[in-house]
Amino acid sequence: MAILTWLHNAYGRDLIEGVRAALPGEDIREWPDAGDPDEIDICFIFRMPHGFLKPFRNLKLMSATGAGIDHYLLDPDFPKGIAMVRIVDQDFAARMADYVLTWTFFHHRDVAHFLSAQSRHDWAYKIMRSAHELRVGVMGLGQMGRLAAERLAGVGYDTAAWSRSLHEVPGVTCFAGSEGFGAFLARTEILINLLPLTQTTRGILSAGTFAQMPPGGVVISAGRGGHLVEADLLAALNDGTLRAATIDAFPVEPLPKDSPLWKTPNLYVTPHCSSTASLATIVDTFAENVRRFRAGAELLNEVDTVAGY
């Protein structure tokens, strides 16, 4: 049997060569040179169009190249009953927490105000609130969300978190389910989205959510593009429902050059770069899962394809 790869080019040839070196006994093929589709039993794919996997009738294991897996599972032709794994490690979560803290500090300390004042040569003094006076909320308490919430609480923010089921995180006020969502939003001045994308979380960054936050709130989204309703975000920024936002993931990527989001005041765009797994982590985790799969052993970071994460 054989492994089919279709990888992103962020690491150039180093990624595929690292995989080959880690799995010297495997038949590793690079798309589009798949050969006989019936020989493919493992796929290691970055992005793929819907229906891509249909020819591979003997596929048994699908591996993502990062933590996000929603774009695979949203394919109506995604094979039923195969195992799926993803790439997750502590460093991945730490990089995400760094991103969250960077932009939380930026909005808390109103860096945009001082940059604008400097451009006008204006000595525009402004009194700043202490971290403990600012109520921050994290949506999602997976590996990345939990660490981000812990870091925010650790530097003194009044931190809350919301997730599907109730968790306990030291120093963090936790809410859960639809019954806790409104109360969570009502106390959240800076809303941080680190949710997985599922049918229940799709479009969650919308007018209904923004309206339940305190007026003039901030949104920081490093989740998935499908969480965002772009028109609602633009409207909320334009009418003052939100005072600012930082968005890292969009429904269409790369963000089209003619998108109004590029030029919207107080909207900060980053190119889906909030966190990336290291080359070593990607190679080592995938190779280990291949070895475990061949041996019939428990897989690392296996996805519940029904729950969507």
Keywords:
NAD binding; seven-stranded parallel beta sheet; oxidoreductase; Rossmann fold; alpha/beta; Glyoxylate/hydroxypyruvate reductase A; 12 strands; 309 residues; NAD(P)-bd_dom_sf; D-isomer_DH_NAD-bd; five-stranded parallel beta sheet; 17% strand
Spatial strand arrangement across the major sheet: 8-7-6-9-10-11-12
Would you list the SSEs in sequence order as H and E? Answer: EHEEEHEHHEHEEHEHEHEEH
Q: CA-to-CA gap between the ends?
A: 28 Å
CATH class designation of the largest domain: Alpha Beta
Characterize the overall form: elongated
**How much strand content do the residues show?**
15-25%
Describe the structure.
- Keywords: NAD, Oxidoreductase.
- By secondary structure, this protein is an alpha/beta fold.
- The chain is elongated, with a radius of gyration of 21 Å.
- It has two domains: about 1-90 and about 275-295, 3-Layer(aba) Sandwich (Rossmann fold), CATH 3.40.50.720; about 90-270, 3-Layer(aba) Sandwich (Rossmann fold).
- Helix content is about 30%, strand content about 15%.
- The longest helix has 19 residues, at about 90-110.
- Helix 1 (about 15-20) packs parallel to helix 9 and helix 3 (about 90-110) crosses helix 5.
- It has a seven-stranded parallel beta sheet, sandwiched between helices. A five-stranded parallel beta sheet has the order 2-1-3-4-5, with helices on one face.
